[in-house]
Design brief:
binds heme C; 4 helices; mainly alpha
């Protein structure tokens, strides 16, 4: 078999794998956003508003800085002032999914 032909086959296999994994990754991302949306609607929307808009009395999450993921996770997990902690109610994965949902709205 000529060498060029082998190289072409190797490149094609590599490309197919890259496309496959990109797809799996995209699906996982969509799943976590969807899960975050449901968890948010059930636990957070009463104070922070539907789809993080027009909050009843909690702070407006539309103004929360997108680069402060750790602060978001910490405040939600351990609570902040009038907001109760969520660590006994939600898993770390569920809180991370709310973060994905938060980012998807920006
Ligand atoms: C009982 C009402 C209430 C519920 C329910 C609630 N929050 Fe809050 N939340 C608040 C209030 C009030 C604040 C403002 C706290 C402060 O800074 O004094 C706040 C602040 C926040 C902040 C900003 C924290 C910071 O570091 O400034 C985030 C993020 C947040 N909430 C996310 C959530 C998420 C996610 C949920 C659902 C799991 C949720 N909240 C449920 C009342 C609530």
């Amino acid at each position: 078999m000529p060498k060029e032909f082998l190289i072409k086959i190797k490149c094609s296999v590599f490309l197919m794998m890259a496309i496959f994994f990109a797809n799996v990754f995209a699906q996982e991302k969509t799943a976590s956003i969807k899960s975050g949306e449901i968890i948010y609607a059930k636990n957070c929307s009463t104070c922070h508003g539907n789809r993080m808009k027009n909050p009843q009395w909690g702070i407006n999450l539309e103004l929360f800085p997108v680069e402060q993921k750790i602060r978001f996770i910490d405040s939600v997990t351990y609570g902040k002032n009038a907001m109760p902690p969520w660590e006994d109610v939600l898993s770390t994965d569920e809180i991370a999914n709310i973060w994905s949902y938060f980012l998807s709205l920006r």
